[in-house]
Write a structure and sequence with these properties.
There is one protein chain. The strands form four sheets. Strands 1, 2, 3, 4, 5, 16, 17 and 18 form an eight-stranded mixed β-sheet that branches. The chain has a six-stranded parallel β-sheet with strand order 6-7-8-9-10-11. Strands 12-15 form a two-stranded parallel ribbon. The chain has helices at 92-109, 123-132, 179-192, 209-222, 234-243, 261-269, 305-320, 335-346, 352-359, 361-367; strands at residues 26-34, 40-49, 52-57, 67-70, 75-78, 80-85, 112-117, 140-146, 196-200, 227-230, 247-248, 274-275, 284-285, 291-292, 325-326, 384-387, 401-406, 409-413. The protein has a single domain (80-374), classed as TIM Barrel. The protein is α/β, with parallel strands linked by helices. Helix 1 links the parallel strand 6 and strand 7.
Length: 417
Amino acid sequence: MSTFTRVSCVTAVVLFLAVGASAQNLVITNARVLDGTGKVIDRGTVVVRDGKIASVSNNAPPAGAGRTIDAGGKTVMPGFIDAHRHLVQGNPAQWLTQQAPRQFQEFLDAGFTTVLSAIDAPQVLEARNQIRQGKMRGPRIFAGTLIPLSGLAFSAAGDPARTDPSRGPLPPRAPAIPRDTTIKAVEAAAQAGYDYIKTLMITTTNGTEIDTLKLVVQEGKKHNLPTITHAVSIRDTVAAVEAGPALLVHTPHIGNLGDDPAALKKIVDARIPMTSTLSVFIPHFGPENKPLFRDGQPFPWNTLSSAGQGPENARLLWEAGIVSYGYGTDTQWPPKETLADELRALGLVFSPADIVTIITKNAASSTLHGAEIGTIEPGKLADIVIIDGDPLRSSAALLNVVTTIKGGEVVFERQAR
């Protein structure tokens, strides 16, 4: 598993033409602090030293502690985390040089300090490394690469979510992946420097998918590479948890867990974190007010049932005690637009207080780095957002980020109007 490095900052877009080369010491005062653990400090002070949280209290700020930010009574909370995203768009080489800097600043502007890139072209590794080295400004990136579990063929054109084989009856047996091929693929992923192995669990009739996933998990552990798994039906999610991956990157949205208490119990008892990705199957509306799918094409209404079933299953899992349910989107819309979409879906079954936990502490668990990010606690990285509004009363406040701090660096400040 990758380790965090403190990110230095370089020339960036929008508000920042030049920044310091090391994390700042900061004091945030006059803040309503939501620390991510459920605690609220109405007149709080957060002290940051060397890019990490030094203290969180209602004490007066210490003298000489560095730059002081007066929050003016606004909400201070952990930086947002998208634990399932796809970043590279269009030509990967052009994306890296022409689109990535602007796209990454959009994440910071929207309050996202960490993003898990579930599958992307190898250029995402170069982007990750440039951010770590301070050559590009952006969120902290963790990246996964795909290793197949079978030779199941997918539609050659369009977004695979439109014609997902998990929606129909159990597909015919798919060709098995040779054991040596899987082992070499895991070794190649480790050598390339990926942070995770991504797998797609789509069970087939008398197929070998579970055995192959068990092998991937086993081999990944040898290289300190956790396995994260796509499973979107109840059938496939139950199969996936049998193999013990580190993360389930979707809420199952095909099949009703309320009709299958045994499956619900098995998924919860596996104690595997899960990400939401609920907004994939709700229409996205752009300036022309046309319902769009995540590929930018007209929304496929035959998938609409998932827009209701996903949130219902999410709440059933939450009530049954799933170990962690975190924010993830699986889309390529701009971050703030995606956040608005995911909040619409989450808001069907979760309270604003639940959603604060989902987008911070639980999303950190979904990256498997919850010990380092996701809450404002001493010793953790100083990933912080200041929000104009109260997200415990209305999740819409999460769209009103005025300041973003990543690893102790102020990376976005909204200009006064």
